[in-house]
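step=encode ok
step=design start
structure_in=
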């Protein structure tokens, strides 16, 4: 019974089902799905034999919400909603991920990634209006993160056929997001994989072949995408594309718009949501960087905590590379996604993936002795 409940909770949160239901099925279904997800997670948490709590994430949450909340004068209901949901996920979700194997987690990421294909083929709307597809994850960059996470995790699977099939699926789905971060990380992870086995170079060939097919058959996609046209131009001797076009709307430009605000209040920040799209500051686009978000909204104390937490994850996963190379690859993918996203505290699948990697590292630390 508890195992079945764990699977249901895992799939609901990691596949981002409630957000998908909200966008594609309407507000009523989305709200029901969201409430059901958290109720089931609470039921699981109260009845499962609990282990050690996730102190890192608890301390981070207490510091961030208490400091940023003291300077928030907008919608109190929204603040409480986000805060309560975060701690439910940190407490209950950690019990879920501690009992989830590599293969189980890979399967749920695969199913989540396939919603990108459903979006492209049947659903339409949302990011598809701009020629990019995101499935239940709504944002193409978030969908790309799911694909790169699954792609990295696939290196832990011993069955070579299943591993290759999973990596091909994640590559195809990731390319459909047209996420620059996904493409850059895909290349980086494949370079790292050559240290595992030089034969992994064949994945490069498969990936570039799939990208070529996407460019050739792009006219069959529901909507024309400017990024595909830019990629085509790069491979054509008859067209020109500038680097500035490919770097348009870069994350570094977005971050720079908030540097003055960070400098003005470095100790306690500017308050909850001040650096997101709900910002009451002059810039409305959001900072698109989790670490700068924490620094800008709650100051340097929680900023130090989150930096140490993820730096520790990177260092330990690097030391464990010979035992579990997927952990370093997943940690790199997660770190760079956080460098380009500001939805850490509101998107459960980011927290679930973070905690799963963290727990896997903790379980394998004894191999370093």
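sequence_out=
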């Amino acid at each position: 019974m508890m195992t079945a409940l764990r699977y249901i909770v895992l799939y609901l949160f990691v596949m981002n089902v409630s957000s998908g239901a909200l966008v594609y099925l309407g507000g009523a279904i989305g709200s029901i799905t969201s409430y059901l997800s958290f109720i089931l997670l609470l039921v699981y948490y109260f009845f499962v034999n609990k282990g050690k709590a996730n102190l890192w994430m608890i301390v981070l949450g207490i510091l961030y919400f208490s400091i940023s909340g003291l300077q928030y004068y907008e919608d109190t209901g929204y603040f409480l909603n986000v805060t309560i949901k975060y701690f439910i996920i940190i407490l209950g979700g950690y019990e879920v991920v501690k009992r989830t194997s590599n293969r189980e987690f890979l399967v749920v990421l695969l199913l989540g990634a396939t919603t990108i294909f459903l979006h492209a083929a049947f659903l339409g709307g949302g990011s598809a209006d701009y020629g990019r597809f995101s499935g239940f994850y709504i944002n193409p960059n978030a969908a790309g993160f799911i694909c790169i996470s699954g792609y990295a995790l696939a290196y832990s699977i011993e069955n070579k056929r299943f591993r290759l099939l999973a990596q091909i699926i994640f590559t195809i789905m990731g390319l459909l997001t047209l996420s620059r971060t996904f493409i850059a990380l895909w290349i980086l992870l494949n370079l790292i994989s050559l240290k595992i086995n030089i034969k992994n170079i064949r994945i490069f060939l498969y990936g570039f072949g799939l990208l070529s097919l996407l460019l050739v058959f792009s006219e069959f996609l529901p909507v024309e995408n400017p990024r595909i046209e830019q990629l085509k131009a790069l491979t054509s001797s008859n067209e020109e594309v500038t680097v500035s076009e490919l770097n348009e709307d870069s994350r570094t430009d977005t971050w720079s718009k908030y540097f003055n605000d960070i400098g003005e209040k470095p100790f306690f920040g500017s308050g909850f949501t001040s650096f997101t799209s709900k910002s009451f500051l002059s810039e409305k686009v959001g900072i698109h960087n989790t670490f700068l978000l924490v620094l800008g909204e709650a100051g340097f104390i929680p900023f130090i905590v989150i930096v140490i937490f993820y730096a520790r994850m990177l260092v330990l996963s690097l030391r464990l590379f010979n035992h579990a190379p997927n952990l370093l690859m997943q940690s790199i993918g997660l770190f760079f996604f956080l460098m380009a996203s500001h939805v850490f505290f509101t998107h459960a699948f980011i927290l679930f993936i973070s905690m799963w990697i963290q727990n896997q590292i903790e379980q394998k630390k004894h191999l370093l002795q």
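step=design ok
step=annotate ok -> The radius of gyration is 20 Å.
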